[in-house]
């Protein structure tokens, strides 16, 4: 197939692009490079630099594209609270421009990189797709609005869409890994201590109702995530919008993550306890029973593999 990958110069988009190329697909990447990296785009993919508003239709029109995989987004929760207008404009606004461009160009299949932040603070765990969607920040709210728009485009314009909702993605695949200017993810920040770039890692709260007192979070290897996107692409059905959660089905505590990082790196990695952050739920774990049953997907790589691959990548940089 010929595929357009938006945000393909970013962390997840670049990994999925590499996997798609390896599977024999032709790929064009559309990215404005504000947070992505040109050298992260795998060889074999054509890069078009630009925004979805300005370039999506020009790229898609007459290009013989079969589908779109949509990763382009602003994704920092804290920034979304400080600049909600930016997130509504970039996430929802540009996604609507992409859907309009697809409609005009006759491209009817899309896989959307959504987020479990659409659920907000869950009532129970693991979280199923039927859980109430009550996002607690503009980032999650903007992603939920895109899910709603996809459902409408499916109903009114025959688009076949799949939204994949996931929590924490980790690991790397060869030359593709996490390279965020502002790093908010736990694993790369812990590994920065092992590299000597930070003195210690902070644990926000140690009095949660969990086995070791620290928050439990679901982690998924970026390679497993890419496999789910390829399965979702095959599952796009005209006139239907489907939602699948992606997760390991279990939570890893902050202490567990730090300990695995110590074992992989051989570094003591000092950890300091700070007060809880407001709004941090004790447990966030996704149920992936639906995608396991319907598409046959299951994660293969565990936390140690995520940390090992991320450590290999970060040292190569």
Report on this model:
The chain has helices at about 10-20, 50-60, 75-80, 85-105, 140-155, 185-195, 220-235, 255-265, 290-295, 305-315; strands spanning about 1-5, 25-30, 45-50, 65-70, 110-115, 160-165, 170, 200-205, 215, 220, 240-245, 250-255, 270-275, 285. By secondary structure, it is α/β, with parallel strands linked by helices. Strand 1 (about 1-5), helix 1 (about 10-20) and strand 2 form a beta-alpha-beta unit. Helix 2 (about 50-60) packs parallel to helix 4 (about 85-105), helix 6 (about 185-195) runs parallel beside helix 8 and helix 8 (about 255-265) crosses helix 10 (about 305-315). The chain is globular, with a radius of gyration of 19 Å. The mean pLDDT is about 95.
Task: Give the N-to-C terminal Cα separation.
Answer: 32 Å
Rounded mean pLDDT score: 95
Rg: 19 Å
Which structural class matches the secondary elements? alpha/beta
Helices and strands, in order, run as: EHEEHEHHEHEEHEEEHEEHEEHH
Strand order of the largest sheet: 3-2-1-4-5-6-11
The shape, in one word, is globular
Question: Sheet bearing the most strands, described?
Answer: 7 strands, parallel
Could you list the spans in which at least 5 consecutive residues all have pLDDT below 50?
Answer: none
Number of helices: 10
List strands and helices in order, with pairings.
Blueprint: E1 2-6, H1 11-22, E2 26-31, E3 46-49, H2 52-60, E4 67-70, H3 77-82, H4 84-105, E5 109-113, H5 138-157, E6 160-166, E7 168-170, H6 186-195, E8 201-204, E9 216-217, E10 219-221, H7 222-235, E11 241-246, E12 252-253, H8 254-265, E13 271-274, E14 283-284, H9 289-295, H10 303-316
Parallel strand pairs: 1-2, 1-4, 2-3, 4-5, 5-6, 6-11, 7-10, 8-13, 9-14
Antiparallel strand pairs: 9-12
């Amino acid at each position: 197939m010929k595929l357009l990958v938006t945000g393909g110069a970013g962390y997840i988009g670049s990994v999925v692009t590499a996997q798609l190329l390896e599977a024999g697909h032709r790929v064009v990447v559309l990215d404005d490079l504000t947070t992505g990296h040109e050298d992260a785009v795998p060889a074999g993919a054509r890069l078009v630099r630009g925004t979805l508003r300005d370039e999506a239709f020009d790229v898609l029109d007459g290009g013989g594209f079969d589908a779109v995989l949509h990763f382009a987004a602003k994704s920092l929760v804290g920034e979304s609270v400080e600049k909600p207008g930016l997130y509504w404009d970039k996430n929802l606004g540009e996604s609507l421009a992409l859907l309009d461009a697809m409609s005009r160009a006759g491209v009817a299949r899309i896989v959307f990189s959504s987020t479990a932040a659409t659920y907000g603070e869950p009532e129970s765990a693991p979280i199923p797709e039927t859980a109430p969607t009550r996002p607690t920040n503009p980032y999650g709210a903007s992603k939920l609005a895109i899910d709603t728009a996809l459902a409408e485009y499916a109903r009114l314009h025959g688009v076949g869409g799949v939204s994949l909702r996931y929590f924490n993605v980790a690991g790397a695949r060869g030359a593709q890994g996490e390279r965020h200017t502002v790093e908010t993810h736990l694993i790369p920040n812990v590994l920065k201590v092992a590299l000597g770039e930070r003195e210690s890692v902070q644990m926000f709260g140690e009095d949660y109702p969990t086995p070791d007192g620290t928050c439990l979070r679901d982690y998924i290897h970026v390679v497993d995530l890419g496999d789910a996107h390829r399965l979702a692409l095959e599952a796009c059905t005209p006139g239907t919008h489907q939602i699948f959660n992606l997760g390991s089905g279990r939570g890893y505590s902050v202490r567990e993550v730090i300990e695995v990082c110590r074992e992989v790196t051989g570094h003591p990695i000092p950890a300091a306890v700070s007060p809880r952050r407001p709004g941090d739920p004790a447990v966030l774990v996704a149920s992936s029973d639906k995608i396991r049953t319907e598409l046959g997907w299951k994660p293969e790589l565990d936390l140690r593999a995520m940390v090992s691959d991320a450590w290999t990548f970060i040292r190569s940089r």
